[in-house]
Design a protein that fits this description.
By secondary structure, the chain is of the alpha/beta class. It is built from 10 helices and 13 strands.
């Protein structure tokens, strides 16, 4: 399948480009980026054409993969879907509910890249946890410190603007939703720096609490997740951090869905659910009230 890459930043360089180049089922067709010099450099590194026009790259491929801020990603993805191109998008799919709903309605194969959801360890854990059932609560702490000179993602304007809610919040929700089900009510409060605390009431009666930040004090950074219920307490294992390999598995799921196989559980419809919860969390924090979905 012919893939075009949209984006040239650190995530494109570390994850998307090497994964596309290494995948046996992919013909890496070209790259488009907002910075022509960076586009030419990355394209030259992989021996593929650098495109200056979004629609020209869309016209030459069967699928796109996107490593761009969500507000840039959404309109490009909708243009590609309208042209019948399959979608491998980054999280969050959009920051506006309207854009997320439009993406959820597209008639193409899609996968949203919630990185660690594409690791065998986590996939096995979640399948076993769902099969066990009886879970009444979950807790996810996902706090990092990315605004340091040695972190390439700290230079991202959208992460600085949106904070942990939008950057790591999708990863936390990608753990909780498959086990506890859809969210009915969202209550959120914010603290120092970009600290956000979410209390979620799930439609089935379970509750989950998420603590999120990407600008936490370095000594407070942590990543922990547990489920609790009739079977006791079960900690989520720490999956290996190998993003290019994980993206290769996301490509596998997209190829399967595009070939008539089952849709990915991490498709744009799931991505739209995540966006709706994050928007509700913003509204809850602003209005100091519980928001129903």
């Amino acid at each position: 399948m012919r893939f075009g890459l949209f984006g040239t930043g650190p995530w494109a360089q570390i994850t998307h480009a090497p994964a596309l180049a290494a995948h046996p089922g992919v013909e890496f067709t070209g790259i488009w980026g907002r910075d022509p010099e960076k586009t030419a450099e990355l394209a030259g590194r992989y021996g593929v054409p650098a495109y200056s026009d979004v629609d020209a790259l869309i016209a030459d491929v069967d699928a796109i993969t996107v490593a761009l801020p969500p507000d840039v990603q959404a309109p490009i993805a909708l243009r590609a879907a309208a042209a019948g191109r399959h979608l491998l998008l980054d999280k969050p799919v959009a920051t506006r509910v309207e854009d997320a709903r439009a993406l959820a309605a597209v008639d193409v194969a899609s996968v949203v890249f919630f990185t660690r959801r594409f690791t065998p360890e986590l996939d096995t854990f979640l399948a076993e946890t769902v099969a066990t059932g009886g879970w009444t609560e979950a807790r996810v702490d996902h706090l990092g410190s990315i605004f340091t000179p040695d972190n390439p993602f700290g230079a991202s304007p959208w992460r600085r603007e949106r904070g942990g809610l939008w950057d790591v919040g999708p990863h936390a929700l990608a753990l909780v939703l498959p086990v506890l089900g859809p969210v009915a009510e969202v209550t959120a409060v914010t603290g120092a720096r970009d600290l956000t605390y979410l209390l979620l009431k799930h439609a089935g009666g379970a509750v989950s609490q998420l603590t999120l930040a990407v600008d936490a004090p370095a000594a407070a950074a942590r990543e922990e997740a547990v489920f609790a219920g009739e079977a006791g307490i079960r900690a989520v294992p720490r999956a290996e951090w190998a993003p290019a390999e994980a993206l290769g598995r996301a490509v596998d799921q997209l190829l399967t869905a595009a070939g008539g196989g089952p849709a990915s559980p991490m498709d744009v419809r799931f991505g739209a659910q995540v966006t709706a919860i994050l928007v509700a969390a913003e509204r809850s924090a602003e209005t100091r009230s519980t928001v129903s979905l």
